[in-house]
Structures are given as structure tokens and as C-alpha cells.
Amino acid sequence: MFTGKRIIWLGIIVALLQSGALYAMVEQRASILRSGKDVILLSQPIDPRDFLRGDYVILSYDISNVSIDKISGTRPEAKGLIDVYVTLVKGADERWNFASASWQARTDLKPDEVQLRGRTPNYAYFASDNTYHVDYGIERYYVPEGQGLAIEEQQRERKIDVVIAVSNEGDAQIRALRSEGKVLYEEPLY
Question: How far apart are CA 96 and CA 119, in angstroms?
Fold first, then answer.
């Protein structure tokens, strides 16, 4: 039978475990922002409307849809979401562009290349244009209240660059939103 002291100790242990798990999630994100390689992507306009979740901007990129004929390697047999690795190379305009894609992580990246790990549904059929939609976890960005519409307007004019930090494993976090070189919003580490 549990006594009062044991229940208190169990409560403390549960609270510490929950706090530790929360800290680990925050630290993983902050670690990518601290030490990840910066990559700049041009966003594409999307018009979100969800007044219950606060102001945010939906972001899409040229690399969000990858043609099946551009993905090398053997597609995993797993059901559900599978990893796809997209290699980017830095362009003359400082933005990073699609170079290649693979079902397996590359180990032979050149110094001027970065690999992003994305997720896509594994299915036997494709969209009418034979593409996979790839989600990198950088498709939504929360902004201060009342600022979302201004960013959406700039997106329609194709003027929003997204600076992301990419870990060695290919995981990405949004570092900042820029317009014509000017930082609109910068994500704090914590």
C-alpha cells in the first residue's frame, strides 16, 4: 500500500520525468538553431486562414514537391510516412536550390551542399504530375499577433526568404524570415 510519503515521491519523480522530456524537446530545437548550417530558401505564397491558432504564416518552397524521377535509390517498403533526403546547393543569389534527392541519406556531401531530411507519404500512386509532396517541418511559422497578413502580402510578391538552420542529420528549424535582406522576424533560441 502506498503511504503519503511514497505518493509524494512518486509525484516528484513523475514531474521530473515530464520536465526532462520537455527540456529535451526544447534543447533539440535550440541545438539545431545554435549549431546548424544556415540555408536561405525563397518561400512560395500560400493563403492560410485559421483564427483559432493565432497568427502564423504557411510556408512552401520550390523543394516542397519533388518529381519521382529526381529521387534516386530504393524507396522504402514501410507504410505511412517515409524519409526522403533532398540535397541543396548554394546559388549565386545566396539562396539554396535543389540539387538532387534520394531515399537514403547521402554520406558524400560536398562542402557547398546541405542535405535536408523530409517526410512524405509512401503510396503506390502519385499526384497527376508524378511528384511527392515533402514536409520538412519548416512549413509553419508563428508571428506576433497582427503581423501575419503583412507577411502573406510580401509572400505574394515573392519577397520572403526563409533562413533555416540545418543539423548534420538533415533536420531543419526556421531561424528567421527576411524580405529584401532585412530581417522581419528572428527566432530566439529559447
Answer: 19
Q: Nearest 5°: phi and psi at 123? A: -145, 160
Answer whether 71's CB lies under 8 Å from 103's CB: yes
Residue 103: burial class (beta carbons within 10 Å; 0-12, 13-18, 19+): middle
The whole-angstrom separation of Cα 135 and Cα 81 is 10
CA 123 – CA 84 distance, rounded (Å): 13
Q: What amino acid is encoded at 187 in this protein?
A: E
Distance between CA atoms of residues 55 and 149, nearest Å: 8
Q: Beta strand pairing status for 37-44 and 160-166?
A: antiparallel
Give the tens place of pLDDT for each residue, 58-117: 888 999 999 999 999 998 888 889 999 999 999 998 899 999 999 999 999 999 999 999
Does the reported pTM lie above 0.70? yes
Rounded Cα distance between 132 and 149, Å, is: 29
CA distances from 123 to 14, 82, 132, 136, 190 (A): 40, 10, 10, 18, 37
Amino acid identity of 153?
E
